[in-house]
């Protein structure tokens, strides 16, 4: 029963951010029923063995676990949300620095403890400007207090399906706000005492906090030491040792990403175990040499358990208690307890108990991809180990050659099994895959695990004992890392791998999970051919034959609109960042959105005009996304498989009997002006959906202004509009009062960026709409806005309603 309660607990925690009233009302009844079942089991039914009663126990235990997990996650989330900053403002804060910083390209990111914002200290992420060719303007030292001035930078996600959720990441990391530093003043402990923070001073003087500070200082010293070594791959040496990627070159990071090996740059369970095993092996050798009689009084496995667990704890602390390391620590402690208590060790039970305990201390780790990938990989490895154990009972290993063959077989088998088993999780979190991953891991994992990481750890230990020897070992290890990179570069030359975006909707993903689950079940449980049935959706058309939908995507300060009706797909604009090389709207918002909606190609793309905030996303992904035909008011370079045509008044597309799309502007003879009057010559699109209520007619204005609005009213005096996507993101130079009054739409939508410098949507436009009693929806407030047809009703859904932390 405990396993089911733990499983229910994990599932309940996994609902974090979602509201399920039924689960809120389930808690008290579940507790009452659980107590009643236990009383019955211990009294009336003590000697009765009923299958129905046992099933009832399991169901109630599982329900109790879900209800407890949901309630715990709900209250923990609400407690954390109350400390979040919501607005950008200039503030002065008193802070304490207890965490190692992270070096970025043009900034240093430093977690700080803010003392004067709430009754208790909260954690912010400070950003300090980093000059590449000179020392940073400001530096914050570990264990010091400061008075900082600057601007808060609250997290604000692009609330679009598939896009990275920055607000979720901030919550998971316990960061309540970003903070751009403009001035720094160092404070002494006497200053902090005088300011009234004596209680915080006492906390930081505790033994535990002093140990944590010392560990962070040692990590910083090790970073500086490696940075000063005459080695080529200092970034990889540091990342593989402590998980600190501050010295890592962007080119190396991108190389590992393209091969699907980024997980090797993070600290994982094997790193921790290698350190513990090395030290315990050394301790064992000393005991065998000088006092072997100890093993007569205390068996080896019992004697070495405590040193082993202490080593695991020390290394976890040294790498900052990352989730994979914590998982390893908890698993080792549980296994040690089972060994000492002489209990049978069950792999799945250990994993469930470990995950449940981790979620008690840090329920927000459920939001991290590392949690799911770490436990998923561990489960697969345990299944492989169980299979190997079963085979070893059947096969007798007679020669070393046979042993090597078996080890190679295990290595190869483990790589493709891990790749396949984690495929759904990787698609769910990253929306892309590198098919060469199993091949590259086949060499990289043994090379890193058996050579580079052990040598890295030995070099680090030597650094703390005898610095010159540590430096020498790091230089030797640099040669090993260079060998690994040469191998990867050869693979890169042969295969030229790229991360392939995969278009897979929820149902296809579920069928993939079910099929893989059948493949990994022990033989005889379920026929393996059933997996083939589950894989059929993977080879079917990747575009759902859904009813009509229109989504105004949240792409910040820009516009991107997705339209689909059965197999027809169209996008109007693709947004764009001012510098797509720094943050790509196309790669990080548009492609992930299309992927989770099962779209791998577009039938049409209309770029209303060629401003960066409308076409920038297209330029960054045109090589990755097949598009049959591209339209714009100016010439656009398209891929060989795409066709181009100008958009102009009079063009029509009849998708079906119910959906009709018409271009209302510009006139063909005015296209020559587009180069000089980009906004006014925007392609204005009118879309009609028949036999639905209450929204049938959509008018999408691009960046068109008053002049275009006047011409549209002249050319189409009887135009019916239910939903108007405001021109130029709600600028005061668009959406004239007379235009709005004559069209009288039921609803207006403004696609604009949070805290944008232009003030879109304009207060003047909002006043016009308010006077005419026309509702306004914005992507700032609601995120992506989706109109979708259900029977004969056109409904609306807001992406910011999907998660509790996205609501403002």
Automatic annotation (TrEMBL):
<dbReference type="GO" id="GO:0005886">
    <property type="term" value="C:plasma membrane"/>
</dbReference>
<feature type="transmembrane region" description="Helical">
    <location>
        <begin position="259"/>
        <end position="281"/>
    </location>
</feature>
<keyword id="KW-0812">Transmembrane</keyword>
<feature type="transmembrane region" description="Helical">
    <location>
        <begin position="302"/>
        <end position="320"/>
    </location>
</feature>
<dbReference type="InterPro" id="IPR004477">
    <property type="entry name" value="ComEC_N"/>
</dbReference>
<dbReference type="InterPro" id="IPR001279">
    <property type="entry name" value="Metallo-B-lactamas"/>
</dbReference>
<feature type="transmembrane region" description="Helical">
    <location>
        <begin position="51"/>
        <end position="73"/>
    </location>
</feature>
<feature type="domain" description="Metallo-beta-lactamase">
    <location>
        <begin position="557"/>
        <end position="754"/>
    </location>
</feature>
<keyword id="KW-0472">Membrane</keyword>
<feature type="transmembrane region" description="Helical">
    <location>
        <begin position="372"/>
        <end position="388"/>
    </location>
</feature>
<dbReference type="InterPro" id="IPR035681">
    <property type="entry name" value="ComA-like_MBL"/>
</dbReference>
<dbReference type="Pfam" id="PF03772">
    <property type="entry name" value="Competence"/>
</dbReference>
<dbReference type="InterPro" id="IPR052159">
    <property type="entry name" value="Competence_DNA_uptake"/>
</dbReference>
<keyword id="KW-1003">Cell membrane</keyword>
<dbReference type="Pfam" id="PF13567">
    <property type="entry name" value="DUF4131"/>
</dbReference>
<dbReference type="GO" id="GO:0030420">
    <property type="term" value="P:establishment of competence for transformation"/>
</dbReference>
<dbReference type="InterPro" id="IPR004797">
    <property type="entry name" value="Competence_ComEC/Rec2"/>
</dbReference>
<dbReference type="InterPro" id="IPR036866">
    <property type="entry name" value="RibonucZ/Hydroxyglut_hydro"/>
</dbReference>
<feature type="transmembrane region" description="Helical">
    <location>
        <begin position="502"/>
        <end position="521"/>
    </location>
</feature>
<feature type="transmembrane region" description="Helical">
    <location>
        <begin position="443"/>
        <end position="466"/>
    </location>
</feature>
<keyword id="KW-1133">Transmembrane helix</keyword>
<dbReference type="InterPro" id="IPR025405">
    <property type="entry name" value="DUF4131"/>
</dbReference>
<protein>
    <submittedName>
        <fullName>Competence protein ComEC</fullName>
    </submittedName>
</protein>
<dbReference type="Pfam" id="PF00753">
    <property type="entry name" value="Lactamase_B"/>
</dbReference>
<feature type="transmembrane region" description="Helical">
    <location>
        <begin position="478"/>
        <end position="496"/>
    </location>
</feature>
<feature type="transmembrane region" description="Helical">
    <location>
        <begin position="27"/>
        <end position="44"/>
    </location>
</feature>
